[in-house]
Amino acid sequence: MNLLVQTANDVPPFVGPSINEFFPPAIFFEGTAFEINRIMIIRFLAVALILVVFWLGTRRMKVVPTRGQSIVEMGLDFVRVNIVEDLLGRKDGRRFLPLITTVFFMVVAMNVTGVIPLLNIAGTSVIGVPLLLAVVAYIAFIYAGVKKSPGNFFRNALFPPGVPKGLYVLITPIEFVSTFLVRPFTLTLRLVMNMIVGHLLLVLFFTGTQWFLFEAPGLFKLFGAGTLVFGFAFTVFELLIIVLQAYIFAILTTVYIQLALAEEH
Q1: How does pLDDT run across 49-72, given as a tens digit for each residue?
Q2: Residue 226 dihedral angles phi and psi, to the nearest 5°
């Protein structure tokens, strides 16, 4: 009995993921406004990845595209046809295509670092980048509306036409909160929370696999096969979430711009 207790006590406890992983220590310029930690470096790498991919795919454009050019063109056409022109049409779509394309591919690149070995955390899993992109979407929404109807945009947004005047005391505060306050926060939270949950689940599965295989006693090691399978399965699922979140962010940004360009504004 004493031997069994001693063996159990010798097994290191399982330590799961924690929220502290999203706040790693500084690597460069600690304590300054330019502090750089692991997540910042991952963000730099994601931006570099975008630049390299598009440079390689477009440096020698040909009528008969190469494989790299075809992949880049497919990505660009996906955003142009299925998001921008589908919602804004060709005329307005041409104006906002660079913005929506940048948002889509930036979110994809920042998200995909969460499943790349040795990086293992998304650049969008900390609120800074999602909030920045949400602010850009918000500014584009305001710009589109004011540009289309300088004198009517805010008035029609806060005082919708056709509503009895007595109801404006209720409708106007609701429209102000939902249109000008809630939208950037929902864009931000939807993206950052998905990336946080995805990271925590992946770390849970793979650290669990490591613990079962190398630390757990006896037959408990067999559970490592299960957590490993779940880890790989969830990695595939996370790849879908990565692209889906980029699509949702881009399409919501486009929808907001479309609403700002609507005729009633």
Answers
A1: 999 999 988 887 777 778 888 889
A2: -65, -45
Rounded to whole angstroms, how far apart are CA atoms 140 and 242? 24
Residue 185 phi/psi, 5-degree rounding, is -70, -40
Threshold 0.85, pTM exceeds: yes
Instruction: For 92-101, write each residue's pLDDT tens digit.
Output: 999 999 999 9
| Amino acid at position 158, single letter | L
d(CA 123, CA 60) in angstroms, rounded, equals: 30
Closest C-alpha among 71, 57, 53 to residue 109: 53
